[in-house]
Amino acid sequence: xxxxxxxxxxxxxxxxxxxxxxxxxxxxxxxxxxxxxxxxxxxxxxxxxxxxxxxxxxxxxxxxxxxxxxxxxxxxxxxxxxxxxxxxxxxxxxxxxxxxxx
Length: 102
Description:
The protein is mainly α and 102 residues long. It has one domain (2-101). The protein contains 5 helices and no strands.
């Protein structure tokens, strides 16, 4: 159940990132934190609807810890993805003299 909730929240964040024009590094950190909190709260809500147990007394603490870890891990994860995909910083942000020669 939590995997489905996280997949749907991840899809929504991915769609928001597609619509953002050249998102900065802080956009990804902020969206990871907000999405983590939303996913934890939605997981608690879905488990409540389905009648399964979830520690609702610790909900905000759980959401905060999950958000903090995801925000901390998104920066190295972005660097690994940039390395794996092979995007170079000079390709994403062309220098003015290269643009003027074209």
